[in-house]
Amino acid sequence: MKLKKFIATLAVVGMVAGMAVGCGSKEETAKADNGEKTESASDWDSSMDITIVSREDGSGTRGAFIELFGVEEKKDGEKVDMTTEEAQITNSTSVMMTTVAGDEYAIGYVSLGSLDESVKALKIDGAEATAENIKNDTYKVSRPFNIVTKKGSENEVAKDFVSYIMSKEGQQVVSDNGYIGDDSAAAYAGSKPAGKIVVGGSSSVSPVMEKLIEAYKEVNPDAEIELQTTDSTTGVTSTIDGSYDIGMASRELKDEETAEVEGQVMATDGIAVIVNKANTTDELSSEQVKTIYTGEALTWDEVVK
């Protein structure tokens, strides 16, 4: 436990004990015995240390986040991730949200389409994190969802499923699940072949891919599709080595990757910067987010005035 949080915890314990002795209230004593917080103890304190939560290396969400917020710099011609070593590392979208939901002083980031009511999304540079604001270019923290296939692959089920994803019907599934699809896509006119394929990669893309698989199997029940959730880098490398028939990446593809795979943008997604619902902060600037993740700002009152 960090020093400030330890001191704050001692202060809360002392306050509760003092109230119980000073006023002789059986109710307050019972609350202290049961470990319940009094109203004053539950107030959010901006002087507390920020719990910085990030994603693992290989995560497309992390790659897009550090690029969009400038949490990287060039050294010897290569981009270097400057995320503070104090950051807690999570390995999936769901773990990220659970971690932030369980810590009043935490900050993290997730796919906008995966956002739920367990956490609070902050405005960034005055704009709310919504699909509509991404469309009108007021919320600028967005990235592509790519699907990739190995160059020269002739798997008919993979080709047909990709055609479904990029069709009017597939893009409607994308839009219905909170992402931005292609409104001008043509109707699906595939061959509906039988067979099995493996789709794998980004945990951010997986939720909408699961919905696409369900929808596709309704029009092609002869297709068997296995979904594996890993990360963006694994999604691409496993497609190259043949472990996946279709890979998922929640970031831009690298030049060395496009030499091996064919990529298509299946959706546009925002990255929501999230905090615990007890946090009184509603908005941060891009620069403030950067100072947190590079370790320049250590407590909430250093960024929230």
Automatic annotation (TrEMBL):
Principal localisation: membrane
Q: How does it sit in the membrane?
A: Lipid-anchor
Which InterPro entries does this entry report, sorted A to Z?
PBP_domain, Phosphate_ABC_transporter
One GO cellular-component annotation of the UniProt record comes to:
plasma membrane
Question: Where does this one sit in the cell?
Answer: Cell membrane
Signal peptide as annotated in the record: 1-20
* Keywords per UniProt: Lipoprotein, Palmitate, Phosphate transport, Signal, Transport
UniProt xrefs under SUPFAM superfamilies: Periplasmic binding protein-like II
List residues of the PBP domain.
43-169, 187-302
Q: Which GO terms describe its biological process?
A: phosphate ion transport
Superkingdom as given in the UniProt entry: Bacteria
Spell out the family assignment given in the record's similarity comment: Belongs to the PstS family.
Q: How does it assemble?
A: The complex is composed of two ATP-binding proteins (PstB), two transmembrane proteins (PstC and PstA) and a solute-binding protein (PstS).
Chain's role: Part of the ABC transporter complex PstSACB involved in phosphate import.
Descriptive protein name: Phosphate ABC transporter substrate-binding protein
